[in-house]
């Protein structure tokens, strides 16, 4: 019996989406106006989002990866208010959109990761 494509390493589309969103966040300072706080917030959180996506791609049975993704997405989403860069429209909207998408994709991927974790646990 072959594995579904979503359970094999490097094959889960939602994890690839997470990597892309993280890279876009990291590079967004190149096309939007930012200050030092907004730029480094987006670089650090974007890099963590991309790294979490890569880890989830490499190890599809790790359930905590999607939980981390949800937390990182929420942090990026609230960052413009907490770190007071809402006046910078490009940076703020980038944070809200990328953070919101990261959060939603993580929540959608959680059942897939839970199911894969259950299948892997049953094989031992």
UniProtKB/TrEMBL annotation:
One Pfam family this sequence matches: SPW
Record's keyword annotation contains GTP-binding: no
Top-rank taxon: Bacteria
InterPro entries the UniProt entry points to: SPW
Residues that span the membrane, as ranges: 16-32, 38-58, 70-87, 93-113
Keyword Transmembrane helix: yes
Protein name: SPW repeat-containing integral membrane domain-containing protein
Native organism: Amycolatopsis acidicola
Lineage of the species this protein comes from: Bacteria, Bacillati, Actinomycetota, Actinomycetes, Pseudonocardiales
């Amino acid at each position: 019996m072959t594995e579904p494509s979503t359970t094999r390493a490097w094959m889960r589309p939602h994890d690839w989406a997470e990597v892309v969103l993280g890279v876009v966040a990291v590079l967004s300072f190149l096309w939007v106006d930012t200050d030092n706080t907004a730029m480094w917030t987006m670089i650090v959180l974007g890099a963590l989002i991309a790294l979490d996506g890569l880890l989830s791609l490499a190890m599809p049975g790790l359930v905590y990866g999607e939980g981390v993704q949800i937390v990182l997405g929420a942090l990026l989403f609230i960052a413009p208010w907490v770190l007071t860069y809402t006046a910078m429209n490009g940076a703020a909207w980038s944070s809200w959109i990328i953070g919101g998408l990261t959060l939603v994709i993580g929540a959608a991927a959680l059942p897939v990761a839970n199911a894969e974790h259950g299948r892997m646990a049953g094989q031992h």
